[in-house]
Specification:
single chain, alpha/beta, ABC transporter transmembrane region fold, Rossmann fold, 3 domains, six-stranded mixed beta sheet, four-stranded antiparallel beta sheet, 18 helices, elongated
């Protein structure tokens, strides 16, 4: 007998998933709205809620004052001598109407003012949590994502948190309370048909709003994606301004940006069109409900059960109901749209850091500063191994240089020692302590680096130097600048240490940026120093100046030098040659030249290039002298 398997159970539909996300997001936001350690904010919430209740009670009283004034006018005598008495009641009731509306506005504004601190505190705390978590995530995470898109997530998320918190507490709850009060008035003072008609109108209104808003959610997602894409392309292009100019690529960049903006335009138009459909449908549903209850009231007036004042009261209450009902439509739209943006922030918070401190990790204790790589295997991608059994030691106070062709894995070593990544096999130790078992903060405090690509903060020179040790005094900053040979430049530049370096330090030359990076590392005063091709992008003259400063700084420190130009490592205590992830040679400069291997071949090629450059320079100088002699003659 064959057994038929049961069909798979249907999973939750889009609406169920959406509602679950809304509930989940609200639950995760609650601790930020109701902070356990802030009594002052809790008090503000209670006071805001009290102001809310009073404001809504006054709101319900306003149409009654209108009704009483209308009935008073309608029931007056027709005799002219009774006119003052006829008008006294309506005038007094009209004044009451004005006072009630003023009180309603006052309590509403008091509620908003009281709750503002609660909302903005939630925004600040959650945004800060996401910002901190972004820095805790691994280098791999940031390399695989575009910074522009991440900043847009943070920016839109901040706005969305404020929107959601304020909408729920300042729109959602007040509106529900007002609905309940109006329905109670209709049911008690009139009859159940008024309440039923109003309930049916509200249900139809909210059902239509829900369906239309869910339709618009997909449009909003597409609009956000196209906005991210356009913003990322703009930031990427502007950060590479010089490269764009080098290759006359302005037109191509403009076309890429315009293509992204065209998608954003299309999605934006769809968003506005769908909003028009939503607003029109809401207005039609409300108008039907308003017309129904007004017809009931007219019928009641003819039968003598209602007065003209009742007609005015019901009309005023329904019109007054339209505003919060319309807010509910906006509330649902804005909250659902905010959930999309907040969901992206929470998605970042859910990302696990690839590199994390182990439970019970202790601070690194540096006594001598001996660095050792023990049989290290590493790959960024399982399909391509970068390091293959690398094993070497940097003795205390000595300088070990790592050289080799491009792609040999040299810079990977610096990333491993900073524990941006962890090896798949083997380990890295400092004074015998496995760096994977100590805290990252203590590890990175013990190591200083001067990278090849120095990126500075868009702030002052002094700020960028002080970044090495934030509690340093101004005298210590000046001393570090002097050791890095940047003090003379700072002395002649306008504003001195307060001079702005520009985006990524673009106002400074390559040598000036390297000196600033060196100064902040000197200020940090680490026992272990990593120089990652720190002079490879500089001209020969600037390289010699920076190299002199680097040698002074590294003296007495354990130094790992990753170099492309071999002329910068001839004085190293040991030179290690990497090729295709393996150590193929090691020794001092003279020993490696005598071996005639990979290092000697690299040295000879670089000397040939250097000699050719020197010959061209001398020829240019001789030609210049000849031209000057001819001109003088």
């Amino acid at each position: 007998m064959r057994h038929l398997s049961a069909p798979p159970a249907a999973g939750p539909g889009p609406q169920q998933k959406s509602d679950a996300t809304l509930v989940s997001t609200g639950r995760r936001l609650w601790p930020y709205i109701w902070p356990r350690d802030r009594f002052d904010l809790k008090l503000r919430i209670f006071l805001a809620f009290a102001a809310l209740v009073v404001a809504k009670l006054v709101t319900i009283a306003v149409p009654y004052s209108f009704k009483w004034a209308t009935d008073s006018l309608n029931s007056g005598s027709a005799h002219i001598e009774d006119l003052p008495a006829l008008l006294a009641g309506p005038i007094a009731l009209t004044i009451v109407y004005g006072v009630l509306r003023t009180a309603m506005a006052g309590f509403t504004q008091a509620r908003d003012a009281l709750f503002a601190a609660v909302a903005m505190n939630a925004v600040r705390r959650l945004a800060n949590d996401v910002f901190v978590h972004m820095h805790e995530l691994s280098l791999r995470y940031h390399l695989e994502r575009k910074t522009g898109a991440l900043t847009r997530v943070l920016e839109r998320g901040r706005t969305a948190i404020e929107t959601m918190v304020r909408m729920i507490t300042l729109t959602g709850l007040p509106t529900l309370l007002e609905f309940a009060l109006i329905l109670a008035v209709f049911f008690v003072q009139y009859d159940w048909r008024y309440a039923l008609a109003t309930v049916l109108m509200i249900v139809a209104y909210m059902a239509f709003t829900t369906i239309a808003t869910n339709w618009r959610i997909g449009i909003r997602r597409s609009m956000n994606e196209s906005d991210n894409d356009a913003n990322t392309k703009a930031i990427d292009s502007l950060l590479n301004y010089e490269t764009v100019k080098y290759f006359n690529a302005e037109g191509r960049e403009a076309a890429r940006y315009d293509k992204a903006m065209a998608r954003y335009e299309k999605n934006s138009v769809a968003s506005y069109t769908s909003l028009a459909v939503l607003n029109a449908g809401q207005a039609a549903i409300f108008t039907v409900g308003l017309t129904a209850v007004m017809i009931m009231c007219v019928s009641g007036i003819r039968e003598g059960r209602n007065t003209i004042g009742d007609f005015v009261l019901i009309n005023a209450m329904m019109i007054q109901l339209y505003q919060p009902l319309n807010f509910m439509g906006m509330f649902y739209r804005e909250v659902r749209q905010a959930v999309i943006d907040i969901e992206a922030m929470f998605h970042i918070l859910e990302q696990k850091a690839e590199i994390a401190d182990r439970p019970g990790a202790k601070p690194l204790v540096v006594s001598d500063g001996v660095v050792r790589f023990e049989n290290v295997f590493f790959s960024y991608d399982p399909q391509r191994e970068i390091l293959k059994g690398v094993d070497f030691e940097v003795p205390a106070g000595k300088t070990v240089a790592i050289v080799g062709p491009s792609g040999a894995g040299k810079s990977t070593l610096s990333r491993l020692i900073f524990r941006f990544y962890e090896p798949q096999q083997g380990r890295v130790t400092i004074d015998g302590q496995d760096i994977s078992s100590v805290t990252q903060e203590s590890l990175r405090r013990a190591i200083g680096i001067v990278p090849q690509d120095t990126v500075l903060f868009n702030d002052s020179i002094g700020y960028n130097i002080r970044y090495g040790r934030w509690d340093a005094s101004m005298d210590e900053i000046r001393d570090a600048a002097a050791m890095a040979q940047i003090d003379r430049f700072i002395g002649i530049v306008p504003d001195g240490y307060d001079a702005q370096v520009g985006e990524r330090g673009l106002k400074l030359s390559g040598g000036e940026k390297q000196r600033v990076a060196l100064a902040r590392t000197i200020l940090k005063a680490p026992p272990i120093l990593v120089l990652d091709e720190a002079t490879s992008a500089l001209d020969s003259f600037t390289e010699r100046e920076i190299q002199d400063a680097l040698e002074r700084v590294s003296r007495g420190r354990t130094s790992l030098v990753i170099a492309h130009r071999l002329s910068t490592v001839v004085n190293a205590d040991e030179i290690i040659v990497l090729d295709q992830g393996r150590i193929v040679e090691r020794g001092r400069h003279e020993q490696l030249l005598e071996q005639g291997g990979v290092y000697a071949g690299m040295w000879n090629r670089q000397r040939e290039v250097h000699d050719a450059e020197e010959a061209l320079r001398r020829a240019a100088e001789e030609e210049g002298k000849s031209v000057r002699v001819n001109i003088e003659a």
